[in-house]
Amino acid sequence: MHWKSFIIGLSLLGMGACSYQPQTHVIRIGEYGSLTGSEATFGISTEEGIQLAVQKINAQGGIHGKKIHMFVLDDQGQPQEAVIAVTKLITEDHVAAILGAVASSESLAAAPICQRNHVPMISPASTNPQLTQVGNYIFRVCFTDTFQGRVMADFARYHLKDKRIAVLKDQRSAYSVGLAQAFIHRFKQEGGTIVSIQSYDAGDIDFKSQLTVIRQRKPQAIFIPGYYTEVGLIARQARQLGIKVPLLGGDGWDSSKLFQIGGRALNGCYFSTHFTALSQNPRVQKFVKEFKEQYHSTPDALASLGYDAAGVLFQALKASRNLSGASIRKQIQHTRHYQGVTGSITINAHRNAIKSAVILKIENKKTLYIASVYPKKIK
Ligand code: PHE
Is the CB of 301 under 6 A from ligand 1? Predict the structure, then answer.
């Protein structure tokens, strides 16, 4: 009798292992982002930050005795690949929650799938305001472009004292279009004039015709809400055309590759972002030191946001009664004053984090810290 039940027990176990039931001794977390393509540093940096957070929590024994197991997929910076990636993470890897993506167009494409399947998604870095409006399972740990556009418009208007600005945007990127809109709205509201709005497509390599039109309008600065690969090329071509005014941008500039591509053409330009390793905050310095020991490089905004997104998720997992999407979601929503390396994170009713931005100036392929801008009453 004993033996029989033992054999039955074993075969049931065997069936369990063969079926698609997820393992229960680990917590399965998904991650998707651009590990290749022209925004590759976004995904790679985020992954490095997340890995550091995962190593730390697992070294402490994991969460409620279970180690974190990451499932990481490359979306190549393409929204349709992001859809494929999250679908696989949910249906095949059975992840409890998802971290990603960086570029807003990818996050916007993937978020409805997470929402429909009740799998909580935390974007470390997507700033397009619409993202978290997809539904109550979609969160971010960064500020939005409503704030970021305002920060750079005010900086141009009151610090640089500009009255006339041209805008050059990526017309198919949700991030670029949204940030351009927020900037233009604020700059005009503060009495500035937008002298020209020009567009390009990601992957373009020649921007001379748009820059020639802009040059004719004699702006005092050009706002370029794009990603680093195109921005680097635009900077070089602007200087070749004799355009000397500063170029201004947002967090999409935040990559060491920007300096490799743009070189000296970027001297005297400014951009806003989420983090600087130059901060004297002891928490930041400790993180920078640990990151350097692990990767032999300085963390950028994405490494830091990836680290914080993972930290917020782990805190929620610790507080969660079980691994159901509904329970994890509830705990992420409860995040208050989480002390991250990118600032204090409180998830508000719109599932956004209200945080400060930093403005950096570029000189000789390096950034200088100019200012931190704190949000007042902006969503
Ligand atoms: N905010 C950008 C977007 O939404 C992504 C980004 C964040 C890029 C931080 C660089 C640094 O697309």
Answer: yes
Nearest to 138 by CA among 107, 159, 168: 107
Separation between Cα atoms, residue 305 and residue 42, nearest integer Å: 11
The pick from 32, 127, 341 for probing ligand 1's pocket by mutation, whose C-beta has the most ligand atoms within 8 angstroms, reads 127
Q: Whose CA is closest to atom 7 on ligand 1?
A: 125
**CATH 3.40.50.2300-classified regions of the chain:** 3-143+280-347, 145-273+358-377
User: What is the pTM assigned to this prediction?
Assistant: 0.93
Q: Which atom of ligand 1 is nearest to the CA of 131?
A: 4
User: In tens digits, what is the pLDDT along the chain, a chain of 379 residues?
Assistant: 343 333 333 334 434 444 455 567 999 999 999 999 999 999 999 999 999 999 999 999 999 999 999 999 999 999 999 999 999 999 999 999 999 999 999 999 999 999 999 999 999 999 999 999 999 999 999 999 999 999 999 999 999 999 999 999 999 999 999 999 999 999 999 999 999 999 999 999 999 999 999 999 999 999 999 999 999 999 999 999 999 999 999 999 999 999 999 999 999 999 999 999 999 999 999 999 999 999 999 999 999 999 999 999 999 999 999 999 999 999 999 999 999 999 999 999 999 999 999 999 999 999 999 999 998 754 3
Minimal-distance CA residue to ligand 1 atom 6: 252
Q: Which CATH architecture has domain 145-273+358-377?
A: 3-Layer(aba) Sandwich (3.40)
CATH fold, domain 3-143+280-347, is: Rossmann fold (3.40.50)
Q: Which long-range contacts (CB under 8 A, 24 or more apart) does 362-367 make?
A: 362/259, 362/266, 362/267, 362/268, 362/269, 362/270, 362/271, 363/267, 363/268, 364/264, 364/267, 365/259, 365/263, 365/264, 365/266, 366/259, 367/276, 367/278
- Rounded to the nearest angstrom, the distance between the alpha carbon of 270 and the centre of ligand 1 is 16
Taking the CA of residue 128 as reference, the ligand 1 atom at the shortest distance is: 4
Neighbouring CB atoms inside 10 A of 24's CB total 10
Ligand 1 centroid from CA 354, angstroms: 16
